[in-house]
Structure formats: structure tokens, C-alpha cells
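Morning. Coffee machine broken again, so started the prediction first thing and wrote up yesterday's gels while waiting. Chain of 258 residues, entered below exactly as on the submission form.
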Amino acid sequence: MSTNVAEPASKVEIKAGSGDAVESFDITLKVRRFDPEISDEAHWDEYQLTMYGTDRVLDALHRVKWEEDGSLSFRRSCAHGVCGSDAMRINGRNRLACKTLLKDLDTSKPITVEPIKGLPVEKDLIVDMEPFFQSYREVMPFLITKGHEPSKERFQSQEDRERYDDTTKCILCAACTSSCPVFWTDGQYFGPAAIVNAHRFIFDSRDDAGDMRLEILNDKEGVWRCRTTFNCSEACPRGIQVTKAISEVKQAILTRSI
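Came back before lunch.
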């Protein structure tokens, strides 16, 4: 069944610096604001903007901060989906603002932007990432080997590398972890991102600390807290099969126990 979505009013203009005629349209950007120095309560502010088909949500936020309200606070860095710093909830879904095109959203109604859930909000769209990184550090996300420093390359076949290739793509944006209902209600749960980064080394044929990581994740706040809702896989901007990785870690724990 097809659904008809009202098309936003648009017009053709010359975008500054491009020299080409491109289509522009009007949007309403609704941003959840919070400033602890002003109030303990959050509120919503709306901004009327004229944007272009090639613009992203990050461009709209830049427009607000640079031209309308310099107090708006959010994180961003590379603006190309690599650093993962601008993860936020856009229309109720975790996304990277730099990868979300405005034309792919329903601009006939306000576009809502709010901070990711489950982490303390410091100001506007900025959250405290320390609880997230604490879980990440606990799974020892680095290569651990035995013996002396090697005098030659630690060879790894293509097949062995493919075993964990998917989980090497993580950019630590926290989109998966902050989309998890268990993480929202249990601040002790490691969360999907930590498990994904443990998976990356547990199945690395060159690493010798897989059992240690499995022991850590066998904790009551480890992989067994996962309820397989697939929110994490849907939220990942890199397309990592997060739920599958968590399942493989569970299976590895069971196999080791047997």
C-alpha cells in the first residue's frame, strides 16, 4: 500500500557559491533545548529555515547556530560520517546529523532533533559520553598477545580477517547503545557498542585475550542482558550487524563453558 506524503513547498534558487540552480524548500526545525545554568527543565524551540535538497540536518543546525541562535550546542567534527560525534535522535530515530539528508525526511511537518537517550544531557544536544566509554574500556579494545615483541608480521589469512571484519567498522558514535531499551533503564549494562568492540578482538586470530573478554561479558550486566530487539542494528550508521555480533559472543561463551 502506498502512502501519500505532502510535498514541501519548493522553489528554484541559486545556491551561494555553486552557480547552479537548485531547488530550495522551507522547513521547521524543532530542537530540544536544555541549559542547566538557566533551568532544570528542557523545552523545545522551533526555527523556520529555507534549505536545499542537498542539505543535511547538520547544515540546518549550522544555520541556526551561525545565523539565528549562537547558544545552540551540539557536537560535530568531520561532517562526513567518520568521526561519529554528531549522533542524535532525528524524528525519533538515532542517526548521524551529517548523513541525514533533509529531502529524505517528511518536511511537511516539524523535523524534531533531540539528544540520544540513556546518557546524561549536559547542554542541548550534547550528552556525557563517559559512561559509554567506560564500558568500552572495560572490554579491553586493543590487541593483546603473549611473548616478546615480534620480529616479523603476525600473519593473518583473508578468511581469518573476514571473521571479524564487520565489527571493525564501529566509529563509537553510541547510536546503537543509546537506542537500546535495556541501556535506557539499566545504567550498568555494557551496551551494544562495547560488545561489538569486544567481538572485534575475541575473533581476531592474532589476539590471546579472548577468554578474558568472554569472562567479562559473561557478567550479569554483559551479553545476557540483550533482549534482541534489533534497535541497535537498525540505528548503526555503518550498517554493522550488531545483534548478530552479540549473538556470536553469546555462543562463544557457551562453547567455552562446554
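The domain at 15-126 is CATH 3.10.20.30 (Ubiquitin-like (UB roll)). Going to sketch it on the whiteboard this afternoon.
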